[in-house]
Each structure stands twice: as C-alpha cells, then as structure tokens.
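Weekly sync, protein design subgroup
Attendees: M.S., D.O., the rotation student, P.L. (late)

Item 1: inverse folding check
M.S. brought a backbone from last month's batch and wanted to see whether the design step gives back something sensible before we order anything. D.O. pointed out we never logged the input encoding, so this time it goes straight into the notes. Structure tokens as presented (430 positions):
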C-alpha cells in the first residue's frame, strides 16, 4: 500500500472501529442506567410497539381490578342486608306460629310483626354502597333491574378492544306496596287476549267447575294488571272486589309475561284465601287461579249456583307504583285466628324470596372474587411478558461494559499508532 500524508487508511479504520466501540458502549450505558434494552422506539420499533400496547392493557386491567373490588363491596353489603332480612323474617314466622295458639294475645303479636316489618324496611333502605342499593328496585326504567360490573377488556387479533361485564340482578326485598292509579288501556292496546279481557265474563258454578283463561301478551316495568270480581251469587256472593288494587300486579323491570301471570294468579288466590281464611292452595269450592306461561286461568266453584264474573284489565305504567319483593308482609295480620292461619303460607313464600336473594348474591360475589383474582394474575403475567421484551440483562450488560471499555482503550491506542504513520515519511526526506 502506498504511503501518503493525505490519506491514512489505517487511521480511518481505527477511527471507524473506535466509533463502533463508543456506540456500543453508549448503548450498554443506557441499558444500565434505564434497566431496559428497549427504552425508546429507536431501540427496536416493533418490540417497543408491542410492549406499549401491553403496558396500556396493564393500566386498563388495574382499573378493572378496582371496579371489581367496588362491585364486590357492593355485593357484600347487599348480601349482609339480605341475611339480616332473612333472620327477621324467621322471627316473624315465630310470631305467626305463636299466633296460631289458642290462648295468646294476638294483637300484641301483630304489633311485634309490624315492628319487625318496619325494621326490615330500614335495613333494605340502608343496604347501599356508594349510592347503589341492590335490595330495592322500584325503578320503571328498562334495565334498572341489573347492574353491570366491568370485568375485562378483550383485545381481538385486529386490535379491536371490547369491554366485558358481569351482570348482577337486583333482588328486591323492599316492603313497598304496589298501587295502580294509571289509566286502564283499551282493548286494542291492553296486551291481553281472552274473553274476559276488558269484559265481565261469567264463570258458573258446577260439579265440573267452569274455567276462564286470559293470556298476557307483553309487559313492561310499571305496567299494571288487575282482576275484578262481580256478580257473585250464593256461596260466591262475598267475593266482589272494590277497587283496581284488590286483585292486581304491577310488573317490575325485567318481568316477563310469565312473571306477570304468576304474580296476578298469586294475588287472586291470596284474595280468595283472605275471604275464606284458608291457605291459597286449598281454596274451598275449587275457586282458584293458575298460571301457565303467560296465561292466567280462573277455575270456578264446584258448587252449582256459586256463580261470579271476572274482568281482566291492564293499566298504563304512568302513575303506578311497583311493589317490593316483600310487599306481602303488609298482608300478614295475626290479630285474628283466620289471619294467623293465612299468614303461615304467606311467610313461607317471603322467606323463600329472601333465601333466593342470598343465593343469587353469593353466586355473584364468588364470580366477582374469581374474576378479580384472575385480573391480578393476568397483570403479573403481562408484566413478566413486557419485562422479557424490554428489560436489559444486567449481568450480560456488566460483562459487555468491561469488554467494551477495554476495546475503547485499545481503539484509542490503535488510532494513536495509526496517526503516527505519516511521521515516518519525514525520515525519507532527510
């Protein structure tokens, strides 16, 4: 290779090597100071993009965990409230059983029942967390019977993110009484099908009891249904109803036609039981109501001449009051022997309502708890994955740092030697 004072190839090569060593040394110093091998997009654009998305998901999962904790606390309050209500209902049952004894002061027992009923209402009203009460649902707004708890963020392969919810149904344990003050709907809009819809239809008493069926086609929250009894004769003479609330049911949010039919049939049987002073399921003369699907069937008396007429009507939601799940407590009156006997059947149904509520809350609590545990483990897994992508191996970095420092020193020495080469040319001119 020709010697030249203008071009020093050896110095250029030494300089390039030194620059490369310095760049590597700067990269290692960055890894040591930040703890990351991919700290910015220029370090590795693809890995940086992936890790950034994962870090965003981790932030979302942490927020979801907080939402689940809030939901779990709300459910715990509701569950404890339902448990307390159940215990008070058992106390009421004890009073009812005592009232069925012959030598007792039934009025004092009734006073105690009324006091316990007020206590139940107080517990239901107080069982709220952050303003949300799962033990009361008298809202007529569609969807008010359920509460959605954010449970997950699901990212599809195309990057689309959707939120998943855990839907928790409210368990209405309030004692609020239903009331129908809305306007009776005309036949074209009453959602009722059958001869007794909007018209008084006779049911004659006979050895083989006559029946009359009406089908509820559709319901919405606050929508009211009633059965009026008129024209009662002989043994059915005392069954005539007065107002629209005597035998009625106001649909809650989330009710189906089947729910409304069952509620209306229960109200009919309760009315008959109170008239007879007997259990709704064993009505003398076979007068009773049954619900199959959305159809309510009234069966007449097995005694000839015990005739009466029924008239089904439906009412617009405006003005109606939705009854609570324990509204039947108002029907319990143990001050009389007949009332004490009737109350036994009523209280069993109310206790079962509370048991169902506790079971529903328990199931929801367990699901929220499991989902929260999963979110916690998912966050840990994501953090491990992000670390594997971007974290620096500091043991390796330490070894490379020492090697590069030696290379840097040698590079500086090599460049110094290469820069001295032109000095040797001067000897040729002496």
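Designed sequence read out in the meeting:
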């Amino acid at each position: 290779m020709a010697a030249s004072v203008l071009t020093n190839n050896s110095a250029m090569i030494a300089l390039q090597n030194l620059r490369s060593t310095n760049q590597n040394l700067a990269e290692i110093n960055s890894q040591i100071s930040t703890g990351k091998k991919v700290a910015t997009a220029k370090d590795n654009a693809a890995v940086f993009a992936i890790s950034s998305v994962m870090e965003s998901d981790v932030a979302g999962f942490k927020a979801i965990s907080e939402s689940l904790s809030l939901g779990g606390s709300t459910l715990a309050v509701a569950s404890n409230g339902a448990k307390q209500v159940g215990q008070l209902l058992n106390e009421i049952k004890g009073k009812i059983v005592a009232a069925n004894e012959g030598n007792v002061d039934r009025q004092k027992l009734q006073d105690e029942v009324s006091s316990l009923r007020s206590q139940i209402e107080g517990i239901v009203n107080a069982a709220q967390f952050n303003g949300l009460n799962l033990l009361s649902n008298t809202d007529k707004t569609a969807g008010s019977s359920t509460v959605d708890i954010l449970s997950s963020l699901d990212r599809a392969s195309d990057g689309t993110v959707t939120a998943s919810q855990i839907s928790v149904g409210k368990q209405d344990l309030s004692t609020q009484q239903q009331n129908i003050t809305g306007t009776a709907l005309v036949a074209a809009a009453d959602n009722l099908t059958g001869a007794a819809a909007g018209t008084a239809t006779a049911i004659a008493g006979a050895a083989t009891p006559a029946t009359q069926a009406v089908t509820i086609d559709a319901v919405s929250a606050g929508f009211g249904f009633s059965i009026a009894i008129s024209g009662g004769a002989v043994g059915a003479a005392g069954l005539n109803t007065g107002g629209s609330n005597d035998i009625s049911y106001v649909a809650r949010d989330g009710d189906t036609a089947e729910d409304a039919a069952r509620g209306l049939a229960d109200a009919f049987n309760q009315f008959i039981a109170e008239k007879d002073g007997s259990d709704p399921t064993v009505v003398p003369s076979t007068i009773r109501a049954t619900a199959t699907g959305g159809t309510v069937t009234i069966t007449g008396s097995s005694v000839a001449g015990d005739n009466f007429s029924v008239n089904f009507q439906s009412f617009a939601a405006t003005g109606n009051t939705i009854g609570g799940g324990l509204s039947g407590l108002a029907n319990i009156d143990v001050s009389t022997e007949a009332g004490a006997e009737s109350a036994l059947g009523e209280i069993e149904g109310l206790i079962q309502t509370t048991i169902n509520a506790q079971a529903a809350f328990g199931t929801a609590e367990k699901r929220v708890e499991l989902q929260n545990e999963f979110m916690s483990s998912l966050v840990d897994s994501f953090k491990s994955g992000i670390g594997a992508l971007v974290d620096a191996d500091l043991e390796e970095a330490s070894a490379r740092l020492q090697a590069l420092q030696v290379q840097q020193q040698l590079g500086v020495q090599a460049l110094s030697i290469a820069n001295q080469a032109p000095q040797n040319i001067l000897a040729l001119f002496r």
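Discussion: The CA atoms of residues 232 and 238 lie 7 Å apart. The mean pLDDT is 86.
Action: P.L. to compare against the previous round before Friday.
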